[in-house]
């Protein structure tokens, strides 16, 4: 038993896990839709339970009571007919039926009862209730049709010498006003849902504003934001504003520090250059000048990586114009270049940062390729930029390493080549600061393709 028990318990657990996964996949993903579902589902379940109780209990009880009353009226008319033999024209019978019972009575010659009438699904409860009550009240054979046009019920009772035909409105034996209950229930549900939807929309709107402000701040764009909404949402908004202030203060302090460091180091490099300019020409002086120039280039690269252009304001930038500048620079180096643009190439970004990003990517392509192609595609949601070359490319397993700071794919390339290992790291940092990213893939030209995705 101890061996079988885990297997027996595993099946319900697996079934529940499958059901939970199935339900999770079909649940709405948005907070507004989920909250609305939380409001709608209890209302629908409550209204359904009330409707079920009404249909199966109250409506059934009322219908049986009304059917019992009609059965008593039918039995009374049968007794009146049998106890009035002198009423040859049945005048008093018809008068009593029309005046007191609101029914029509006709005395037909004795004849067999019609075959059972077809049962309507709409009046199945009435058929059951009326047939049951007539069986209790009328001992003679009878026939019932609850689907007569003009909302009538036809009842025939077979007597010894005649057949009584009675017509009555369906409302005498059937709770026909139940639609009023359902109508009020539907109207009340719609009003409740409308009010709930309005309140939920007002509660969700501050959260969407907060998300928009955080997204714009992540892209380096300034947007006016003031915490609003419920207490918890205002707390989250206030925390975001405080975090934004701290980040901006940290960026400002870092920029100030880097400006000081940059000024001091550039002063020293300028002194070195001045001292070398006053020295007589020699092979040692030439080598020292090359080292100082390389030191200056590396310093600029390190400062650019550390600075990250966080203090630059965003503005509408034409990527096509930047492509033209990079193409002209590439062609000056004797390298073929082409440009392809699909859609509007304008986007709100930090212009100098994006220019540095593209310059770093094109610089890598210039270093290793003989042919370069620049392309931009605007699909309405994202501006995708491609920089293709026909160089040797980068192996798949080492493409992610290429974005690591100070990482050199080719160890044989020394620092004399001006490669500090920061070009792709700076480019990815700039792309992610705008809410996008950079990926590397194989180029249609045979070399490397650098793809930049920037959200619009």
Structure report:
It catalyses: ATP + protein L-histidine = ADP + protein N-phospho-L-histidine. It is an enzyme of class 2 (transferase). The protein contains ten helices and eleven strands. The chain is α+β, with helices and mostly antiparallel strands and about 450 residues long. Among the domains are: about 25-175, Beta-Lactamase; about 310-455, 2-Layer Sandwich (Heat Shock Protein 90). Strands 6-8-9-11-10 form a five-stranded mixed beta sheet, with helices on one face. A four-stranded antiparallel beta sheet has the order 1-4-3-2. The protein has a two-stranded antiparallel sheet with strand order 5-7. The longest helix is centred in the N-terminal third of the chain and has 53 residues, at about 30-85. The protein is rod-shaped and about 155 Å long. The model is unreliable at about 1-5 and about 410-420 (pLDDT under 50).
| Uncertain runs | 1-5, 411-418
What is the total tally of β strands? Answer: 11
Supply the CATH class of one domain: Alpha Beta
SS strand fraction: 15-25%
Spatial shape: rod-shaped
Alpha-carbon distance between the two ends:
64 Å
Strand order of the largest sheet: 6-8-9-11-10
Report the CATH architecture of one domain: 2-Layer Sandwich
Number of helical runs? Answer: 10
Biggest sheet, open or closed, and with what strands and sense?
5 strands, mixed
- The pLDDT mean sits at 80
Structural class: alpha+beta
Helix content range of the residues, please?
Answer: 55-70%
Assign the CATH topology of one domain: Beta-Lactamase
Rg over alpha carbons = 44 Å
Order of helices and strands: HHHEHEEEHHHEHEEHEEHEE
Main location: membrane
Subcellular location: Cell inner membrane
EC number: 2.7.13.3
Catalytic activity: ATP + protein L-histidine = ADP + protein N-phospho-L-histidine
